[in-house]
């Protein structure tokens, strides 16, 4: 079998250039960065609280690197002001570059928001567990829930010490504005050690029925999930955000592999942006790459099976996902698949990006 590569222009509809409008030193090793969104592209950056954006960060060695950063701003509060929180990491490049180099007026290329760390409803009681820089998407959700929702909000926020608390001023302001509905529980490892299952389980039991969200270091989120299970909380009521570095480059244009006839192709029927698309699908090419290479504006971000921006619903046929680091069993049972990782297992496959 022979395989030749055919490179076609990929869509750049989701890539935009934004200008930094504010930089705030949150702690000695973290900053918050705000971006100005011009009126003509405001609609491109409509998002849900808890989602993230992907930044194209300059690099002398590779030209650029791509990294995802959660939005701490709220679409219900901040009038399309996009703000991210960035914390310096040992041995890391992208976050350290931003902490050292970003300044007001700087332009950066950004992919539009995506992500599944979101709330189905803002009108329920919510219990948040944030560790360190994991506060960034949690802050977005907290602000939206308090301003646009009707439930009570509890935040358990763990940090190394008092000097490492990101967004402390904002959190204190929120507490003063919503004294009846917002409870802030701080935990400092310098005083109390690492959070314990006893402490986490007590908070969960004290707020039985609340929907649980957690973001932070993996051991911290594992602790929250174990504690929730011990308290009888259904797995579907616990939402976990995962930070992952990207190995590939989501800013690259897609490449479509043209296969010889002996390899064969499947037929894909895709419902996307209100259209029904029928196209040939080479069997060793992810569905997302096929769509982008043929000029269709499919949603995506990481292109590595880690963010769920490209999730679609399987209606007919079957696919294999090369990688899946984000969808849980319940998602897969509901028919959700990652287009960036989907390869056809049947001759005909039907999916929908619109019916989720």
UniProtKB/TrEMBL annotation:
Question: Gene that codes for this?
Answer: kshB
Per the UniProt record, the lineage of the source organism begins with: Bacteria, Bacillati, Actinomycetota, Actinomycetes, Mycobacteriales
For the keyword Iron, the answer is yes
Tell me where on the tree of life, at the top rank, the source sits: Bacteria
- Could you tell me which InterPro entries the record lists for this protein? 2Fe-2S_ferredoxin-like_sf (IPR036010), 2Fe-2S_ferredoxin-type (IPR001041), 2Fe2S_fd_BS (IPR006058), Beta-grasp_dom_sf (IPR012675), FAD-bd_FR_type (IPR017927), Flavoprot_Pyr_Nucl_cyt_Rdtase (IPR001709), FNR_nucleotide-bd (IPR039261), MRET (IPR050415)
Q: Which UniProt keywords apply?
A: 2Fe-2S, FAD, Flavoprotein, Iron, Iron-sulfur, Metal-binding, Oxidoreductase
Q: Residue limits of the FAD-binding FR-type domain?
A: 13-120
Query: Under what name is this protein listed?
Result: 3-ketosteroid 9alpha-hydroxylase component KshB
GO MF entry, a single one:
2 iron, 2 sulfur cluster binding
**TM stretches of this protein:** none
Q: Which residues form the 2Fe-2S ferredoxin-type domain?
A: 266-356
What's a Pfam family in this record?
Fer2
Cofactor(s) for this protein? FAD
